[in-house]
Specification:
Photosynthetic Reaction Center, Chain H, domain 2
Length: 254
């Protein structure tokens, strides 16, 4: 009697080995796909890192952007890192913090740091800007709480610095993202994220920065939309104020 082809083959062992081989290849693929941004690695001085890891940087993959915004290839198409930052070393060894050398809030370093995102507004599934002024979104209105338009904007040192002129909303999410206000000194309009202000006692209180710092808040170029890069800089400025607005905020609090 002739034995079958698989008569002496351990199918259970073969299945297990095939699974382990597939799993190893899957890990290799996922790790390389994860390296399309941020690689090759750099040290604190911006030089190529001595240890790039076990996996090689993947070859370029081209992505077609929606709504006619062209194509982009990664990893070669990733945005260049910010250079010439106003920071200096505090220790010759890697891993130690860098200290700002100028005004960190305007230089965009430390807690006020930002990344070079696309200078294009965030868009919904139909290609329309998601965040727009309420005055241009005719299908929306405020039906709960107080309309903040006309309320004074008060700084962290309790100075009135402007007046709210509009609310910018996220249309798909149906919520407020920014308050727009006109500076009292004629310096134009600015946006403040709703997460970095407090509506209280008939006032819009911006606790993170002081009156003399409002003029340096990054501007938005359009009256009807705000880009991802502009959002990044605006939020970074207010956020950095929690540490950098005054030297006393950098001292130990306990």
């Amino acid at each position: 009697m002739v034995d079958a082809f698989v008569g002496n083959l351990d199918l259970a062992s073969l299945t297990l080995w095939l699974f382990w081989i597939f799993f190893a290849l899957l890990i290799f693929y996922i790790q390389r796909e994860n390296m399309r941004e941020g690689y090759p690695l750099e040290d604190d001085d911006g030089n190529p890192s001595a240890n790039q890891g076990l996996f090689p940087v993947p070859d370029d993959k081209t992505f077609i952007l929606p709504h006619g915004r062209g194509e982009i290839s990664f990893p070669s198409g990733q945005k260049a890192e910010r250079s010439d930052l106003a920071l200096e070393r505090t220790n010759v060894a890697n891993g130690f913090p860098f200290e700002p050398t100028g005004n960190p809030m305007t230089d965009g370093v430390g807690p006020a740091s930002w990344v070079p995102r696309r200078d294009d507004p965030e868009r919904d599934a139909k290609g329309h800007p998601k965040i727009v002024p309420l005055s241009h979104a005719t299908a929306f209105h405020i039906n709960a709480g107080r309309n903040p338009v006309g309320l004074p904007v008060v700084s962290g040192d309790k100075q009135v610095v402007g007046t709210v002129t509009d609310v910018w909303i996220d249309e798909p999410e149906q919520l407020a993202r920014y308050f727009e206000y006109e500076l009292a000194d004629g310096g134009g309009k600015r946006l403040v994220p709703v997460t970095m202000m407090r509506l209280w006692g008939g006032k819009v209180i911006v606790q993170s920065i002081y009156a003399h710092q409002f003029a340096d808040i990054p501007k938005h170029a359009s009256d009807t939309q705000v880009t991802l890069l502009e959002e990044e800089k605006i939020c970074a400025y207010y956020g950095g104020g929690y540490l950098y607005a005054a030297s006393s905020r950098q001292d130990p609090q306990i």
